[in-house]
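Lab notebook, bench 4. We co-purified these components, and the gel suggests they stay together. Before we commit to crystallization screens, I want a quick structural picture of the whole thing.
Request: model the full complex, all chains together.
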Amino acid sequence: MRSSTMRCFTIFTLLLLLSQGHAASHKLLSSPFSTALETLQKQLGYTFKSIDLLRRAMTHASFSEENNKAFAILGAAVIETSVSFHLLSKDVDISPKELNRRLSQVSSVDSSCAVDGTRLGLQKIVRVSPKTNSSTPAVVCGAFRAIFAAISIDTGKSDDAGNVFWNLHGGDLGSAVAL
Amino acid sequence: MRSSTMRCFTIFTLLLLLSQGHAASHKLLSSPFSTALETLQKQLGYTFKSIDLLRRAMTHASFSEENNKAFAILGAAVIETSVSFHLLSKDVDISPKELNRRLSQVSSVDSSCAVDGTRLGLQKIVRVSPKTNSSTPAVVCGAFRAIFAAISIDTGKSDDAGNVFWNLHGGDLGSAVAL
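Here is the predicted assembly.
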């Protein structure tokens, strides 16, 4: 009888712990930041295997030592590769001058990168310190670029990230930049 | 009898034309430039579907209007993407400072790009005008970078080109740069 009571108590305790764990993970999933990441994935048309990569991409250096600064460097390279690859694939005879002009447009923080990022609403998602304004072009741009590093690492292929960028940017670079 | 002679003459003429065509294509295949492209493909560990892309990558602006200048722009982006992708995949916590340091190393015309290109013997392959010295770092580097644009366009995937670069560069970036 005593052993049976003990067993019952153990099972009850385990169930209680499990339910608390479930509640905790549920709480984590339903935080405003996590909900925003879910929505962002839908906008990107890409679902992460490791959501932590997107979480880091949406974290500014003012918020944490674990931030998106190195990601933004890879992301910028992915964007440059994607743009020049698409333009050269479309016209193998494109002049270096024209190619550089398009690359400058797309790499410009103010005219392209921050525009794309703001359109995705990144200024409302990216985590910054209380003293930092998340709407500045540099913050939005860093977060936008970091997304493509996160996708590259998640899939193991930078081309996948480049394709997501190309789709977001509208395919037709000229018109997207003019937005 | 006359018709038979005519037929015989026609067949002879056709055979002559065919053999000349064969000789011409054979001559093209066995030119020193074409032989060098064959050897280069073996060194790269990559065989082109469209050899014209490698042909263009090995053509300096001083030699022809159809040259490698725009290819070199895409190639430089492919290299930057490949290096930062590999470094971040190996260590997701790499500092932006360290990542930028490695990228500067690999993008430097004198210390890395021209070293890799010269090791491949590109200074002996790249076509330049008689007045141009094909051994200068800028010429070798442009040709080296252009290779990765040519592979990207040939396969439709810049990751394939990035992997060829990574293999050529030795995998361990630190030691390759020190060569």
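Chain A has a mean pLDDT of 86. Worth comparing against the SEC data before the next meeting. Chain A is about 75% helix and 0% strand.
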